[in-house]
């Protein structure tokens, strides 16, 4: 095995996943440069091990110990690029904390990412599930990224079209993109900024403050206040944000459900299909605030599963399966988990 890399063995991942699951990795490397990543994967013994690329660990459920190599991407750096007449471009390394990066863009005077304030995780993880909140997804501000391809040892540059962004999805969750390791991400932010208040809850929270022409900072602060009200802080209660995706059903299915459940929360999609609020479905099944062992449903937001202390990945899986079964029996909708199961 490579002698100069600071590989650690039988390493606890508890501090490295926001669910706070106490799983262990056979081998662990904190990666602080692309060169180090290349060196690690040039080592035949390391390259042959099953691999888990870890950012902030905020979108992952560790279902047991990991019998392989964890590459914890901690590469830092951020910069303003020249941009063009209409956009300023900014780039950040994959290991940068997402929220800190968004706040930094605001400090530079650049609006455009404020709706995505306070999302846990790293810059490098953000494109993998095309993070989104309050009417904005990363794909809306994405310019390009560079990624290390372990199969070839090359660094590849990818534009938006290459990434196949969709709702909480991208090429990095599918073959052939799954093996790529994101090194840095660049964003394109409008010089002529306008607030994005498409999300009703955000629009009304801005209006309530009497802000007719909010600044990017004010929008960010409003998003932060809403998130703090509804979502648990992973530093206090282990969780991975929304545990299920909001399911999309066809218009006929939605119409049938509405006859039986007139209060059903649904949003029509550009193709005529309907996105349902999974939190509402789970809430209606009576799961909000309930627990199974050490895993529970957050009392203020039924879409968030929490670790009430000492939960294992299996505890969370059991709870998730019970919720899926109830929602399916009642509404005929299969909920799909949002975090990646390892
Ligand atoms: N609702 C309930 N009961 C609940 C939770 C929600 O009735 O326990 C209802 C709400 O009243 C609302 C609707 O469901 O009418 C939607 O709830 P909310 O606006 O809180 O958003 P969400 O659909 O639960 C999504 C994202 C969040 C994102 C927010 C804001 C997904 C899976 N989740 O949640 O993303 O922050 O919208 O844009 O798309 C994440 O992905 O980890 C995440 C937190």
What would you note in describing this structure?
It is a single chain. The protein is of the alpha+beta class and 342 residues long. Helix content is 24%, strand content 26%. The protein has eight helices and 20 strands. The strands form six sheets. It has a five-stranded antiparallel β-sheet. The protein is globular. The model has no long low-confidence stretch (mean pLDDT 96). The structure holds uridine-diphosphate-2(N-acetylglucosaminyl) butyric acid. Uridine-diphosphate-2(N-acetylglucosaminyl) butyric acid (EPU) binds next to β13 and α7.
SSE topology:
Layout: E1 8-12, E2 24-31, H1 34-42, H2 44-47, E3 51-54, E4 60-61, E5 66-73, E6 78-81, E7 87-93, H3 98-107, E8 132-133, E9 136-137, E10 142-149, E11 154-159, E12 181-190, H4 200-208, H5 216-230, E13 238-242, E14 248-249, H6 251-260, E15 266-268, E16 274-276, H7 278-284, E17 291-292, E18 295-297, E19 304-307, H8 313-331, E20 340-341
Parallel strand pairs: 2-5, 3-5, 4-20
Antiparallel strand pairs: 1-2, 6-7, 7-12, 8-9, 10-11, 10-12, 13-19, 14-16, 15-16, 17-18, 18-19
The structure holds uridine-diphosphate-2(N-acetylglucosaminyl) butyric acid.
